[in-house]
């Protein structure tokens, strides 16, 4: 029987780590390295305590942990031994293995749908690097003016909800969402967007991206075609590509999606994804003629229309436009709305308005995805809308964003005349700065990043080559000073390109 009469371990009296942890860690390391080989008998706890001048309880505690984890084993009447059967995979730091060349890293095995999804870049709104500054940077798109959010009103309602929480807010909720919030959403979209719906048709979701994912999984089988605006929203592309759909790019002009072009390319597409009120990213409004043509096609081909109404609240001339869903008499439109742009992205709250025939399917899919959105936040939002804070906030932000758009247009005119062509738009939180014909917008965006400027290349949103490159410039989260300084930096970047 092999026996170790003494163990040499580097215990550090000056360390803040307790002795029992040091002893456990060093013995574990010695076992894994083979310094303490399998099957060897260890000195008694009394002997080790005397050797290291520590208490016997300290040694016993370390031994108990090693015994519990399987590194040691006790034999009645014989003492404590290094475990005789250690898995080979644990012995990763033996000298022999250290000398072996490192194994080549293996690619993670992903599903086909995951590989398809990985081919699509994330939008700037849903991706940020670890350690990236949280402060808005010119001209990162999609960001709202977080510092203008009515925090006090939100906190008062939240405190009220938590002070005497209702029991139905502390357990599991309805997959379709909190009832009072669904009622408030239904009333809001009826009044502001001319959406035809009842509260039962409203399904609360964790942001519009979840709505796209649910629609892709429920409405499209692998290999079936989906019309996508081109250029268009990357999130929609990722959702339908992950579902295995055949993506059909449909060009966009100043009247929105070109329906006849979509029919010519694939008349039997299962879904058409559109942003009719404010086309993303070009900003066009779909004409009535095109809307009616799209609805007629959907009815004739038994297809679905996914209407993404991502920022229609921010229209600077007249009232927000009526929805495409409000024109639908055949139940072919699924309407997506979000609170990310009008309130805070971190709330992760949005909503679907689905035709009656789809309520059960979408509710079940929502439940299977993640149960439901946080109930207390839903309750707070319901009160926030009911008390008028939501509508007041939108009116205030609409005025502020229109003002900031004006600052950006003027700054670009002064500092980038001849380098970047930009004009005011009727809605939204972003502008497109068109580059001279032949200038690569991706290379330009990389150059701008060297000057601490976020400028998303327009071609990143296109499936087919674009005739002219451009940069998507966000302004909603920036002060006048930040816009002015950002335009000067962007000018330096373009001049040095």
Could you walk me through the main structural features you see in this protein, from its secondary elements to its overall organization?
By secondary structure, the chain is an alpha/beta fold. The protein has three domains: 19-99, Orthogonal Bundle (Arc Repressor Mutant, subunit A), CATH 1.10.10; 115-133 and 151-387, Aspartate Aminotransferase, domain 2 (3-Layer(aba) Sandwich), CATH 3.40.640.10; 392-495, Alpha-Beta Complex (Aspartate Aminotransferase, domain 1), CATH 3.90.1150.10. The protein has helices spanning 19-33, 45-52, 56-68, 95-99, 112-118, 151-163, 179-193, 208-219, 234-242, 259-265, 288-301, 359-370, 375-386, 389-416, 441-450, 480-495; strands spanning 72-75, 79-82, 202-205, 225-230, 246-253, 256-257, 271-274, 304-308, 333-338, 350-353, 430-434, 456-457, 470-474. The strands form three sheets. Strands 3-10-9-8-7-4-5-6 form an eight-stranded mixed beta sheet, sandwiched between helices. It has a three-stranded antiparallel beta sheet with strand order 11-13-12, with helices on one face. Strand 5 (246-253) and strand 6 (256-257) form a beta hairpin. Helix 5 (112-118) runs antiparallel to helix 9 and helix 7 (179-193) crosses helix 13 (375-386).
List the helices and strands and how they pair.
Elements: H1 19-33, H2 45-52, H3 56-68, E1 72-75, E2 79-82, H4 95-99, H5 112-118, H6 151-163, H7 179-193, E3 202-205, H8 208-219, E4 225-230, H9 234-242, E5 246-253, E6 256-257, H10 259-265, E7 271-274, H11 288-301, E8 304-308, E9 333-338, E10 350-353, H12 359-370, H13 375-386, H14 389-416, E11 430-434, H15 441-450, E12 456-457, E13 470-474, H16 480-495
Parallel strand pairs: 4-5, 4-7, 7-8, 8-9
Antiparallel strand pairs: 1-2, 3-10, 5-6, 9-10, 11-13, 12-13
Helix pairs in contact: 1-3, 2-3, 5-9, 6-13, 7-13, 8-9, 14-16, 15-16
């Amino acid at each position: 029987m092999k026996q170790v009469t003494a163990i040499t371990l580097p215990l550090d009296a000056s360390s803040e780590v307790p002795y029992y942890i040091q002893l456990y860690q060093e013995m574990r390391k010695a076992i894994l390295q083979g310094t303490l080989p399998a099957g060897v008998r260890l000195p008694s706890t009394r002997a080790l305590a005397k050797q290291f001048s520590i208490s016997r309880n300290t040694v016993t505690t370390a031994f108990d942990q090693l015994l519990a984890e399987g590194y040691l084993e006790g034999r009645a009447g014989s003492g404590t031994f290094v475990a005789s059967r250690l898995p080979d995979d644990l012995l990763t730091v033996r000298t022999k293995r250290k000398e072996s060349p490192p194994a080549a890293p293996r690619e993670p095995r992903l599903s086909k749908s995951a590989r398809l999804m990985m081919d699509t870049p994330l939008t700037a709104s849903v991706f940020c690097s670890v350690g990236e500054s949280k402060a808005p940077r010119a001209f990162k798109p999609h960001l709202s003016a977080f510092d203008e959010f009515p925090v006090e009103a939100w906190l008062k309602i939240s405190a009220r909800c938590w002070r005497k929480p209702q029991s139905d807010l502390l357990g599991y909720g309805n997959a379709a969402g909190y009832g009072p919030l669904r009622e408030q959403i239904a009333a809001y979209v009826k009044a502001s967007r001319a959406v035809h719906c009842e509260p039962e048709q409203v399904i609360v979701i964790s942001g519009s991206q979840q709505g796209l994912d649910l629609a892709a999984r429920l409405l499209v089988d692998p290999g079936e075609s989906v019309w996508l605006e081109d250029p268009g929203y990357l999130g929609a592309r990722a959702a339908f590509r992950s579902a295995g759909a055949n993506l059909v790019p449909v060009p966009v002009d100043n009247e929105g999606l070109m329906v006849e072009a979509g029919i010519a390319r694939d008349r039997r597409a299962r879904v058409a994804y559109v942003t009719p009120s404010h086309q993303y990213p070009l900003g066009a409004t779909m004409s009535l003629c095109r809307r009616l043509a799209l609805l007629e096609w959907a009815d004739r081909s038994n297809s679905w229309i996914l209407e993404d109404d991502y920022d229609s609240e921010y229209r600077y001339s007249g009232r927000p436009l009526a929805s495409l869903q409000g024109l639908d008499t055949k139940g072919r439109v699924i309407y997506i709305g979000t609170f990310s742009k009008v309130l805070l992205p971190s709330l992760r709250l949005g909503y679907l308005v689905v035709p009656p025939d789809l309520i059960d399917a979408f509710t079940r899919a929502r439940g299977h995805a993640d149960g439901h959105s946080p109930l207390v936040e839903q309750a707070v939002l319901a009160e926030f809308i009911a008390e008028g804070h939501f509508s007041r906030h939108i009116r205030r932000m609409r005025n502020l964003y229109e003002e900031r758009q004006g600052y950006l247009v003027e700054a670009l005119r002064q500092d980038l005349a001849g380098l970047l062509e930009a004009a005011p738009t009727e809605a939204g939180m972003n502008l497109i700065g068109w580059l001279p014909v032949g200038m690569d917008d991706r290379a330009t965006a990389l150059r701008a990043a060297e000057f601490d400027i976020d400028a998303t290349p327009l071609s990143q949103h296109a499936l087919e080559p674009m005739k002219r490159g451009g940069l998507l410039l966000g302004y909603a989260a920036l002060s006048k000073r930040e816009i002015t300084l950002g335009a000067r930096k962007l000018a330096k970047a373009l001049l040095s390109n």
